[in-house]
Amino acid sequence: MEKFELHILGCGSALPTTRHFPTSQIVNVRDKLFMIDCGEGAQLQFRKSHLKFSRLNHIFISHLHGDHCFGLLGLISTLNLLGRTAELHIHSPKGLETLLTPMLDFFNRQMTYKVLFHEFDTKEPMQIYEDRSLTVTTIPLRHRMPCCGFLFAEKRRPNHIIREMVDFYQVPVYELNRIKNGADYVTPEGKTVSNNLLTRPSAPSRSYAYCSDTIYLPSIVEQIKGVDLLFHEATFANEDAPRAKETFHTTAAQAAEIARKAEVKKLLIGHFSARYEDENILLQEASAIFPDTQLAKETLCVSV
């Protein structure tokens, strides 16, 4: 199967600790790299994960809290020092360009490449990226400021040609693309050869949903239904549920409840509060509700 991987660069929350970096991730789809959020230290973790800066062209920022975007200026500056020439696209809620442009003008007066900002609305789901193999759609969340998660969905791939059957029915080459996309073949004599005789299905399309930061929000369930991998913030344990509600965050158990209702295949939890020396308490509370749960950690790579 083609590559579809998630790399964790940071999985801590706002208060720095010696255990975790602030939030940042890389989604690798067929060696195209997409960054989600860019907390401090993201570029260092990028290096530790043995990823290539040249393959990174799109950055998706969920919201404008510092632990999700303070690493952007340093990353942009590093790419400039490396002599980058390809455009860098940054997708975010309204306001990031206004905040970042003066600093870029001051610290990077001679840019070797263009930084292009794309703003999106956080109230309704919106497709913000598409290429031949992938779409990225926002997932409206509820936090203390406008915030969205992201749904990375692989496009359905064409069926695989069964070479022996195509040769047997003497199918012309110019018909193959139609057949890959589900069409039957009609012979010169007028006989219809069913597509399922000529092809076999491609591997199922895969999907990844990122949901951080947010209060417990059951309304996202339908949009993320059945995804192969869900990352959901799990900032607090059950005993700190009042604090989670106050700060518009989620407990590990609530994250697991979302995963259970959405019938996802696997749950990855992160955005851990600095108060927990051992996040296994969060893992235990989530696993009791949704067994296929894993703790995020720096440099972790998960195949989707």
TrEMBL record:
Entry note: cofactor: Binds 2 Zn(2+) ions.
SUPFAM superfamilies, A to Z: Metallo-hydrolase/oxidoreductase
Residues forming the catalytic site: 67 (proton acceptor)
Gene Ontology molecular-function annotations: 3'-tRNA processing endoribonuclease activity; zinc ion binding
UniProt cross-references to Pfam families, sorted A to Z: Anti-Pycsar_Apyc1, Lactamase_B_2
PANTHER family assigned to the protein according to its UniProt record, in alphabetical order: ZINC PHOSPHODIESTERASE ELAC PROTEIN 1
Record's protein name: Ribonuclease Z
Naturally occurring in which organism (per UniProt): Bacteroides uniformis (strain ATCC 8492 / DSM 6597 / CCUG 4942 / CIP 103695 / JCM 5828 / KCTC 5204 / NCTC 13054 / VPI 0061)
